[in-house]
Amino acid sequence: MARQRRLSDIPDFLHTSPFLPVGTRGDSHDPIQKVQVKPSLGQIIRSKHFRTVVVFIVIALVLLTLPTKIRNYHSFARLGISGPKCYFTDPVTIPSIPEGEVDWSHFAYTQYATTPDALCSSLMLFSALHQHSSRADRLLLYTPDLLSSPTATHLLSVAQNIYEVKPVLVEKQHKNNVHYIWADSYTKLLAFNQTQYKRLIHLDSDSTLRGNIDALFFLPSAEAVLPRAYWLEKPKLSSHIMVLQPSTMALEKIQKAIEEATRGTYDMEIINSLFGNECAILPHREYALLTGEFRSPDPKHMAFVDGKGEWDPAKVMQEAKFVHFSDYPFPKPWEETSAEEQEKVVPACVVDEEGKVDCRARDIWIELYKDFKAGGR
Ligand SMILES: *[C@@H]1O[C@H](CO)[C@@H](O)[C@H](O)[C@H]1NC(C)=O
Fold first, then answer.
1. What is the whole-number distance in angstroms between the Cα of residue 116 and the centre of ligand 1?
2. Which residues cross the membrane (predicted)?
3. Which of 18, 185, 216, 284 has the smallest count of CB within 10 Å of its CB?
4. Which of 218, 55, 77, 206 is nearest to 136 (CA)?
5. pLDDT digit string (tens) for 108-166?
6. Is 72 helix (H, G, I), strand (E, B) or coil?
7. Going by CA atoms, what residue is nearest to atom 14 of ligand 1?
């Protein structure tokens, strides 16, 4: 249990998350964190005696020799010296689907499943794609161990026969020395191997789809179009939804990065380091909302609204086409939870200046989980 709570085990996308319980955030006694902070602080204090230019050079040299994870905290990211430079570009404008003939066989949605639970939620997303009349192909990357589960083989046949899913058997990309929750997450990166397609939309299965998003296939060319991990303080891109251009070159880079990945480096960290300078930004409001946003401690939801209008949970929900279940450490929606566990995380109602009680965020959050559970039956 103590192991699980260590900050260095947790992927970057959760480090400064307001949704983490107190004690797991930056104030935790994490030995790795401490070791990482010391040298740069020491450098800064010592360099006080140097002239500005010398200070700059020293800091730059230190930063360049530090692991990428720490460098990303720094505004050097903005310059593209480190970190995802594209984070600072404006989100793309969503084009409309071209009129006339479109060869949809160039495009596919991909998901990956390494467990029967994940396979079941993938199936729910494929069903949603079907319901929203998506026209692109549907690919499911799955791993050989699923074939020994009768539930999984049944779900695979449903996927093929009812939702026209093309199953793609892949080797599980797994690491032993990393946090178990994300140990298989590298597998999703094998989507880059589907080079028979011009463009792919990867969707994480612990999510719900609420509209047709086929237009994303027609975004201007970019190796990766990614949403900002808007809930973090530092610049990071998220990987729970990605618009990708598969290529052998990209796959080679990916494979090398998976090989070298250690604790704290998961699919999202790899995506940031490989594509952070070349990518384009997917607007998070419509395409990358987290369920955790409805429980954010910030009443104004500054990071989410990003200077555009005010937080209005009903409107946000209405605009959202893709919502990701993310209330860590609250379990994923397919897992059973006790009433106590639920009571601990359920969003509170808010009281406005006139004393009116607003429970919309709470109701929306509860409804999202309820819908998911109902869909899984
Ligand atoms: C990529 O796809 C090719 C062709 O289907 C396959 O032979 C190869 O094993 C795949 N590579 C990986 C890493 O999955």
1. 23
2. 50-68
3. 18
4. 218
5. 999 999 999 999 999 999 999 999 999 999 999 999 999 999 999 999 999 999 999 99
6. coil
7. 170
